[in-house]
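Quick one: structure for this chain?
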Amino acid sequence: MNSPGVQVPDIERDADRLDAVVRAAATGNKHALNELLEALRPLVCRWALVWTGDPDDAEDTAQQVIMRVHSSIRQFEPRAKVTTWVYRITQNVLRDRQRKSRRENRKLARFGELAREAAHQDTPDDVRPMVLETLHAMMKDLSQMQRAAFDLVDLQGHTAVDAAEMLGVEAPTVRVHLLRARAKLRQRMGSVVEELQ
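Got it. Here's what it folds into:
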């Protein structure tokens, strides 16, 4: 399950050398720390890919894990295996990302509800302009197809199949654009929903 061209090191075979590198890194040796992080990254990517099933998510997870290892290397207990320690960090990062994703999905769904409500004339005057202005600003970052997919499916309530027929494309194409639109909008969400409620 390695990414093409990525050589996953045999950590078990190189355990003794890696133990020495970890001990040196834990004492502040920057060269050793860089060597450790370089050795661990492909392995963490592989672990994350097994859990996420998505290469981009796996890369993002690995980046976060490497940053945590970097910042907490001095806390490493030499009696433990480095792979066990890093695997636990990976699991924690994955759990944190899942919780954050669920929160962001709920916010995005609530934002869609607010936007749909704002599209109706009976929405309170003090809420309607703010929701529509915020939605307009956030959607500027989307491609035309992403905006159309998000509008038709998440705001208007059409199925991906119906939206595909309306747009003259295949349903999987709509789903891809919808996923990308949601991902971009999640990045922009922040505290928008809290401000609008």
